[in-house]
Each structure stands twice: as structure tokens, then as C-alpha cells.
Amino acid sequence: MSRPRIVIVGAGFAGYRTARTLARMSRNKADITLLNPTDYFLYLPLLPQVAVGILEPRRVAVSLSGTLPGVRLVLGEAHGLDMDARRVRYTDPEGGEGTLAYDRLVLAVGSVNKLLPIPGVAEHAHGFRGLPEALYLRDHVARQMELAATEDDRDRCAARCTFVVVGAGYTGTEVAAHGKMYTDAQVRGHPLPQGLRPRWLLLDVASRVLPEMDERLSRTADRALRQRGVEVRMGTSVKEATHDGVLLTDGEFLPTRTLVWCVGVRPDPLVESTGQPLERGRLVVDPYLQVPGRPEVFACGDAAAVPDLDQPGKYTPMTAQHAWRQGRVAAVNVAASLGVCARHPYRHRNLGFVVDLGGARAAADPFGVPLSGPVAGAVTRGYHLAAMPGNRVRVAADWLLNAVLPRQAVQLGLVRSWSVPLDTASPELARTPGRPERETGAGGRSGAGEGSGAGGGSGAGGERSEPVHEGITEIIDNTEKAQLAGAEPPPHPADRELADSRPPEPGPATSRPGEPAPDHPGGEPARNQPGAEPARNQPGGEPARNQPGGEPARNQPGGEPARNQPAPERPAQSPGTEPGRVPHEHHPAPGPVRREDIPAEGDT
Ligand SMILES: Cc1cc2nc3c(=O)[nH]c(=O)nc-3n(C[C@H](O)[C@H](O)[C@H](O)COP(=O)(O)OP(=O)(O)OC[C@H]3O[C@@H](n4cnc5c(N)ncnc54)[C@H](O)[C@@H]3O)c2cc1C
């Protein structure tokens, strides 16, 4: 038999670990292909630190090819699965189409921002699910503070320095805690007019912050936030977002230009296209992480509804701790399905959580022992360093520099408001003119299929979603580690007919169970939001005058008009291009360089 082809879709916590474990187990006896839109694994728990300038973005982006020897990386986004023909269709970063044939498939596509049907939110809020959103927020907050400092009108100044975060799960809590420190540091040297202070509000319909976590952690976080001056408003959410601010459910209107949406996530819409049973939008799998009726297909992480064997009838929550562990079990069970070893069911063992509250403060409960203050801070940072699969020295160096030097509050303006829409199936990628975009899926606006994931609080909708986050980062399971060591875009391109018809092998026997326009949250006019009327001067819709710094849009990265772009790339059959690759006719914007790996047998 030729080498089995294993395709892993998604290189987040689950997919990365599946690939790493399989590479170690297979010892080059299998073709392992990892399909991911970016060439890095994103360590999401440290994203709030990127948004406030503690960490540079590349610190939380771990190179896939640099850390996964024996794994072939294909850059692209899957947009269709043909489970009968065992093919994955994908679009590369430049719009080219390809297919990957597999004998075993692991779906680990994670989740995207959850939207709720609240008027104005899709247009005026920004999510917090990927690097582009974190970079946008960092620039936006710095810009609002700088503009507030020169604002003559007191009300406009107050609106600029009011920041509203919705969702008091770990993402929203960390963003608000870090954000307040960030803006306080900015005004220390340059006080705002008329004695105004930056104002951060954290809202949630839940009765306490970190509603999914142990109450002791919740109290620690609540205390730290209030001491820092964050206005914690539980039992309150957003009724409507407008150009001028947000209307709260208690009737108060808050003038603001910033609405950060951390109410949670929903599974990546790709899983809907499988046609397989879903549980609240997640692909149903058995305890061996196999899709019932499709023993050659595995799923794990946020995108999969994995039965919680410790709580019968429930599914494991959407957290990094589960995704990371499920990735290992998926790899072992893929190997088992190829006759290498025995398979194992996935079982959860909670070792505790950590929440970084900025400065030396954190809330943690390793092995159920509640910690707060600097001890928790040290445990939290130690945990993150140990848990990251790479870049540890770089992260530690940034922390050290941040401890002794003032933070750099400069905005580069590289990520525009319109390029990070809340409603997107690809939060890991900034929208660029001409890049095809995946459908956001039916569940988008309704929030169907959601978890409160991504540290989402119960957010804005009023109804708490399930499955819910249990909390924050897991404490490292050293035993497990040791075992492992041993072991405005154009429409989406039309789907292409699949060429290669290599017959599938029988599956294994398994069980089946500028200056922003005034008065807009986000600092940019609603008409410039994706989905609204495009501005005439810029692809993607943002007018040049609204760029920070006033620089014309054509000179902005990502904002260049099509006529100034490099000539379209040659079609696919150029040397080094994957054979059989479908050429794309038009490249209005440059994209990342395509890797030119040798295709595995059966790929097109
Ligand atoms: C800001 C933030 C902080 C968080 N902090 C914590 C924390 O402290 N502790 C904790 O336990 N959890 C935390 N979480 C939640 C945790 O990050 C997720 O539960 C976890 O990332 C899920 O892992 P995953 O592998 O399923 O998905 P992800 O890590 O999201 O990875 C999915 C991967 O699939 C790729 N992908 C998506 N669609 C496609 C496609 N169509 N084709 C190819 N590739 C695709 C994505 O680019 C990505 O690389 C946090 C989340 C956020 C957003």
C-alpha cells in the first residue's frame, strides 16, 4: 500500500497538535498535509497582550513549517468537502483553487465571531478572534486617545476615550483589564483636556464576570477590574449600536467610538458543508473523535461536538485546553485507524485555569487552588510560556522589555476598519481588496450553533449559550506532554469539478457513535463598514480622508487601488506550481507568497 494520505484542515490548537503528534508517530510513513490560511499557529490566549502593545504580533504566531518537520503545509482555506470522493477543495491566498485527496481527514477549523441580531452591531462592532482584529484595536485605541487629546469639544473628547467591551468571559475581561492600563499609561504623560479620564466599560448579561468559571476566580477578576477603574456592569448589554454610541439594555446611551465584541464564537461555517449531523453548529463526533458513518473523518477542537464522558449528555466546551488535548487523541486514533496502535476515547481532566489581568495581576486556580495577585501573575505567565509550542524566548523578552521600558503607543494604521468585519468566516485574515471570501454560514447573525467560546461572556443576547466556556487556560499536563514526547470582495470562486478519481480505500472498522469621521463607534463611518456603501476612493470602501494620518488610501498597505497593483500573476503551470492547479485569472491585490511544496499523490 502506498503511504496513507492524512489531511488536517486547520492549524489551531487542535490541528497543530494533531499534525505534530502524527509526524512524530508516523516516522515518515504517511503523507501528512496541513491546510491552513496562514503559515503560523496563533496562540490566541495572548492576543489581548498584542492588542495593548505588550507583545509584538509575531510573538504569538508560531511558524508552522519551522516547528512541524515532516508535515507539508498547504496555504489555503477549505471551502468544500466531498466526503464520497475523499477530497477537500480549497482556495489559496491568491484566489487559486486546489484540491487535496485524503485517506484520513481531520477537521480542526475552530470557530469564528458570534453575531447576535442586535441592530447596528455588525456594522459598528469589531470582534477579537484573530491577529488582524488585535492589531486594528491597538491602533484604534491609540488613535482615539491621540485625537481626544486635541479635541476642543468636551462631549466628543469623552466619546473618543470611552471604550465599551461586551462579553465578560476571559477574552472580554482580559481586553478590558489590559485596555484600561494601556490608556491610563497614555494619559499619564499627556493628560486629556478638562480632566477627562479614559473610561472602559465591561458589559455582560450574566450576573458576574467570568460567568463560566469558579466563583473565586470571578471575584478576583472583578476586584482587579474595579480597582483599576473599569466599570463592570453585569446584567447589562447592548440594545443597539449606532454611529454615535451604544444604547444599553438599561436605557442608557453611551457616546463612544469603540465597541469590542467578545460575546463568544460559533463553529467555523465549513462544518455545515459536510452535510453531517451538527450539534449547535459543531460537527458531531463519537468519543474517538470520528464522524459517525465516516470512519475516515475525524474532527476536534471548537468545530467538533465531542461528548464529555465525565458529564454524560454534554459536550466539551470550546476552549484551548480541550482543543489541544483532542488534537493528540485525534492523531492517536488516526494512527490506530491505520493499524499502528490502539485507539482511545477522549476524556477531559481539568487541571485549572489562568486569566491574565494585566500588570502583575491574574486569577488562577491550578489544581483547584485559587490564586490571585502576583503569584497568580507568575503562574499565568509561566503557564503560557510552557504551553506555547514556540517563540518562548521572544515572548519572555517582550515581557522583560515591557517591565523596564514604557510601552510604545504608536499606531501604524496597517489594518483598516473595513478589513476586519465582525461578520467573517476568516477572522485570521484581514480582508484585502480582491481576496475571495468564504461564506459566513447560515448561523452567522442568529448566533446559531454558538458556544460562548473564545472567552465569550454570555454577552449581549440575553440567552446564555451552551456549550459554555469553563474558563481559562488549562494548566499544563506534564504527564501528557511526556507521553507525547515518546510518541468587499468578489464572489467566491465557483467550485471546480474534481479531477482525480483515485478510488478510496476502505475505512477502518470503528465504533460509530485618517481622521475618523465624527461620531461613529470604531471611529469610522458606517458607510465604510463592510456591507455598507463602499467609498469611491478605495477598494474595500474606506475613503482616503478617513485614514489615520491623513495619508491617501492608495498609499496604504492593503488599500491600494487595483490599477497600482503588480501585474497579475502567471497562471498555474509555471515552474514549481502544483500540477493541475486551477489558475485564477485576476489578482487585484498581492497576497502572501504561495509555498510550492511537492504535491502528494492525488492532489490537484
Ligand atoms: C482572544 C482569545 C483568548 C482565548 N483565551 C483562551 C484561554 O486563555 N484559554 C482557553 O482554554 N481558551 C482560550 N480561548 C479559546 C481557544 O483559543 C479556542 O477554544 C481554541 O483556539 C480552539 O482551538 P481550535 O484548534 O479548535 O481552533 P483555532 O485555534 O481557532 O484554530 C482553527 C484553525 O483553523 C484555521 N481555519 C479556519 N477555517 C479554515 C478553513 N476553511 N480551511 C483551513 N483552515 C481553516 C484557522 O485559520 C485556524 O488556524 C481564547 C480565544 C480567544 C479568541
From TrEMBL:
The keyword Membrane does not apply. InterPro entries: FAD/NAD-bd_sf, FAD/NAD-binding_dom, NDH-2. One of its GO terms (molecular function) is NADH dehydrogenase activity. Residues 493-503, 581-598 have a biased composition (Basic and acidic residues). Keywords: FAD, Flavoprotein, NAD, Oxidoreductase. Residues 425-466, 484-604 are annotated as: Disordered. It holds the Pfam family Pyr_redox_2. SUPFAM superfamilies: FAD/NAD(P)-binding domain. Residues 5-327 form the FAD/NAD(P)-binding domain. It comes from the Bacteria. Residues 441-462 have a biased composition (Gly residues). Belongs to the NADH dehydrogenase family. This is FAD-dependent oxidoreductase. The lineage of its organism: Bacteria, Bacillati, Actinomycetota, Actinomycetes, Kitasatosporales.
